[in-house]
Write a structure and sequence with these properties.
The complex is a heterodimer of chains A (about 120) and B (about 350).
Chain A (H helix, E strand, L loop, with lengths): L11 E4 L9 E6 L10 E6 L7 E7 L5 E4 L5 E7 L2 E7 L6 H22 L6
Chain B lengths: L3 H8 L1 H13 L1 H5 L2 H7 L2 H24 L7 H26 L3 H43 L6 H4 L6 H15 L20 H27 L6 H19 L5 H19 L6 H23 L3 H19 L8 H23 L4
Helix pairs in contact in B: 2-7, 2-10, 2-11, 5-9, 5-10, 5-14, 6-11, 6-12, 6-13, 6-15, 7-10, 7-11, 7-12, 9-14, 13-14
Classes of the chains: A alpha+beta (about 120), B mainly alpha (about 350).
Chain lengths: ~120, ~350
C-alpha cells in the first residue's frame, strides 16, 4: 500500500511501486513545484515509534531526485528526508512463523480455557 | 411463585459467577491499549496468559470456594473492604481516559450514564454484566476478523524490553481470571463439578485481549498510527460498561449497590481530572498491592494446596507491585493526591474493621 504525503512547502516523497523485501524500488523526492530535490539524504525508519525501531540510510538523491532502495526488513516503515516523511508498509515475504505461532497458541489457549471451564466432565 | 428471572438465575448460577468475573476481567483489554503492544508486541500478552492460567485461575478458584470472608474476623472485614474499594478504583481507572478533557459536559453525561448503569445493576447485575461481557468479546472477535491489514509488525514479540511491560503483564494475568478483587466471593459456592468456571473466564478475557491486539495491529499496519478505531472504541466502551456493572452489581442490598454506583462514578471523576497523573502509580503499584493483600488474607485461612496457590499469587502480586514502582509523583499536588488516596483507603478499611465489628 502506498500513502502519499500531502504537498508541503518542503518536499514530496513517492515510491514507484509498493515496496517488498528483496525487491528494488525507486524513491523519488520532489519539491513543492515538482522539481527533483538533488543531493538529499534519504533514510528509512523500520518499526517507527515501536520497540526495535531501526533507522537506516538508503542513499542520496541523484540529479533526478531519485534513490534506489532494496528493503530488507518487512513491516511498517517511514521514509524520511529533510524532515518530511512517508509512511508505508514493506510487504511481508510470508507469514512470520514465530509471531503467527505465538498468536495461534494464545488463541488456542483462550478457546481451550473456555471449553475446559464450561463443559463438565461426564461421570460414567 | 418464583419470578422467571429468579428461576433463570438459579439455573445459571454457575455461569453468572463466571459472567460477572468475565465482565471485570474485561478491564484488561481496556487497559491494554496499543501502547502496550508498542513496547513488547505479543510478549506481554503471552506472559499475562501464563500468569492467568497458573496463578490467576487457582486464586479465582480459591476465592470462589472460600465465598464471602467471615465478617466476624476484623481482618476479613478489612480485606473485603479493600477488595470492594479497589474494584471501584479499577473501574474508575479504566473509564477515566474516556472522560479526560471532556469538561463539565462530559462529567454530567458520565453521571447520567453511571446512574443508568447503577439502575440496571440493581435490577440484575449478573444478567446485564454477563450480557455486556459476551457482546464485548463477540465484537472484539468480529473486529479482529475484519482487520484492515495483516497485523504482524505490531504483534512481533519483543522480549528484551521486559522491564517496560513485565509488571503490568503480571497484574493483567491475575485480572484475566477476575481474581484478587473479591469478584468470585460474592455468589454461592460452586456446585460439584463446576469449579472450573474460572478457566472459561480467563479464556474468554484472553480471547478479547488477543482479538483487540490483532485489530490494533491491523490498523497500525494500514495507517502506521497507534490509534483506536470504531471497532476498538466499541469494544473498550462496552467492556468498561460491563466492568462497571459487574462491580456495582455484586451481592448486596439496593442501598449498597447505589452507594457503589456513586463510588464508581467518583473514582472515574477522580482519575479523569485531579488524579490523572496518578494512573501510572495505580496500575504499576497500587492495584497489584491491593490484590496481594486480599490474596494474603485468603491464604491465611486456606489449607493445603489452596494456601500454597493463593500465597504464590500474593507473592507474585507483591513482586509486580515492586517492579512496577514508578517512584513518588514529582509534582507536590500529585504527591498530596496520592497521600489522600492512602488516607481514604485507611479510613474506609479501618471503618469497616472497627465500626462494623461492634
Amino acid at each position: 500500500m502506498i500513502w502519499l504525503w500531502a504537498l508541503t512547502a518542503q518536499a514530496t516523497i513517492v515510491t514507484e511501486a509498493p515496496p517488498a523485501v528483496g525487491t528494488e524500488v525507486v524513491v523519488t523526492v520532489l519539491d513543492a513545484s515538482d522539481s527533483p530535490r538533488v543531493g538529499r539524504t534519504v533514510s528509512v525508519v523500520h518499526r517507527p515509534d515501536l520497540d526495535g525501531e531501526r533507522e537506516l540510510a538508503i542513499g542520496i538523491t541523484d540529479a533526478r531526485g531519485r534513490v534506489r532502495w532494496t528493503p530488507e526488513i518487512p513491516g511498517v516503515a517511514t521514509v524520511q528526508v529533510d524532515g518530511e516523511t512517508l509512511d508505508l508498509a514493506v510487504a511481508w515475504p510470508g507469514v512470520p512463523t514465530g509471531t503467527a505461532t505465538l498468536l495461534g497458541l494464545l488463541g488456542t489457549a483462550g478457546i481451550g480455557g473456555i471449553f475446559f471451564g464450561l463443559f463438565r466432565r461426564r461421570r460414567r | 411463585m418464583t419470578h422467571p428471572l429468579q428461576r433463570l438465575q438459579t439455573r445459571f448460577d454457575v455461569p453468572w459467577a463466571g459472567g460477572m468475573a468475565l465482565a471485570l476481567a474485561l478491564a484488561v483489554p481496556v487497559w491494554y491499549g496499543p501502547q502496550v503492544l508498542a513496547h513488547g508486541g505479543l510478549a506481554p500478552v503471552a506472559v499475562a496468559t501464563v500468569v492467568a492460567f497458573f496463578v490467576g485461575v487457582p486464586l479465582a478458584q480459591a476465592e470462589w470456594q472460600t465465598g464471602a470472608l467471615d465478617p466476624r474476623t476484623r481482618w476479613n472485614r478489612g480485606a473485603s473492604a479493600l477488595a470492594e474499594l479497589w474494584s471501584l478504583l479499577l473501574v474508575g481507572a479504566i473509564a477515566a481516559p474516556a472522560l479526560q478533557g471532556s469538561g463539565w459536559t462530559g462529567l454530567a453525561l458520565s453521571a447520567v450514564t453511571a446512574a443508568g448503569l447503577g439502575a440496571l445493576a440493581i435490577w440484575s447485575g449478573p444478567l446485564v454484566a454477563t450480557g455486556l461481557a459476551v457482546v464485548a468479546v463477540g465484537v472484539s472477535l468480529a473486529g479482529a476478523a475484519a482487520a484492515p491489514a495483516v497485523p504482524w509488525t505490531l504483534l512481533q514479540p519483543h522480549w528484551e524490553s521486559w522491564t517496560l511491560w513485565l509488571p503490568g503483564s503480571m497484574t493483567a494475568g491475575l485480572l484475566l481470571a477476575g481474581a484478587g478483587l473479591g469478584q468470585w466471593m460474592g455468589g454461592p459456592a460452586p456446585i460439584p463439578g463446576a469449579g472450573r468456571m474460572p478457566w472459561a473466564t480467563a479464556g474468554a478475557a484472553l480471547l478479547a485481549v488477543v482479538a483487540l491486539s490483532v485489530r490494533y495491529a491491523g490498523t497500525f499496519e494500514a495507517t502506521a498510527e497507534l490509534t483506536a478505531d470504531p471497532w476498538t472504541g466499541i469494544v473498550t466502551g462496552v467492556a468498561a460498561l460491563a466492568a462497571f456493572v459487574a462491580v456495582v452489581g455484586r451481592n448486596g442490598t439496593r442501598q449498597v449497590r447505589a452507594r457503589r454506583t456513586a463510588g464508581a462514578w467518583l473514582a472515574t471523576a477522580w482519575f479523569a481530572a485531579p488524579a490523572a497523573g496518578l494512573l501510572p502509580l495505580w496500575w504499576g503499584t497500587l492495584l497489584p498491592l491491593g490484590i496481594a493483600l486480599v490474596a494474603l488474607r485468603i491464604a491465611r485461612d486456606a489449607r493445603g494446596t489452596t494456601r500454597w496457590t493463593t500465597g504464590a499469587a500474593s507473592v507474585g502480586a507483591l513482586l509486580a507491585a515492586g517492579l512496577g514502582w514508578t517512584g513518588l509523583p514529582p509534582s507536590p499536588v500529585e504527591a498530596a493526591l496520592a497521600a489522600a488516596m492512602v488516607v481514604v483507603t485507611v479510613w474506609v478499611v479501618g471503618t469497616r474493621i472497627l465500626v462494623e465489628g461492634e
